[in-house]
Amino acid sequence: MKNLSIKALSRETWPDFEQLVQKHNGVWGGCWCTAFHPKSSEQRRSLEATKGYKKRLVEEGNAHAALVFAGDACVAWCQFGSPQELPTIYHKKEVESKMTMPDWRITCIFVDRDFRKMGLSFFALNGALELIKDLGGGVIESYPQDTQEKKVSNSFLYNGTRQIFDKAGFSYEGHKGENHCIMRKTI
Q1: What total of structural domains would you count in the chain?
Q2: What is the DSSP string of 131-174?
Q3: pLDDT (tens digit per residue) in 146-173
Q4: Full-prediction pTM beyond 0.70?
């Protein structure tokens, strides 16, 4: 695709992010990409409350993402943040018993349904890596689906596949849960 760019999620880009999430009914059942943030009474109370929680996190500087733009339209994102910003990972005890604490976590990659199968997950991931580098870098950890080359429904690929993390230079650190793995990279 041509005319692709990356912008950080911020107060200025919130309307673009908001438009994409609303197009997809709040994404993953109204999550608004808040599932990995600290638990809040605002989450899942209603779509508007969850949206308000995410917007507040963005305004406070406690939500990070690389937004992918195709021209002027936001068409994908890759969420990242510190473990304090994104503490609510699946199989947390298992991960933390195996690994030292990373500086950053990548927890979500989402692509607009009209732009899937065009390599935007990989583009978003690399955008997040560049933004992390600009923020000082460090050890980055993520938990993609380990599809083992099998076809998997997009609804399970909330954090991409092991293949795109391999391609981005992450190292495989082991299994997590039933179908995910731990991947790491240092920048």
Answers
A1: 1
A2: HHHHTT--EEEE--B--TT----GGG-TT-BHHHHHHTT-EEEE
A3: 866 666 555 555 678 889 999 999 999 9
A4: yes
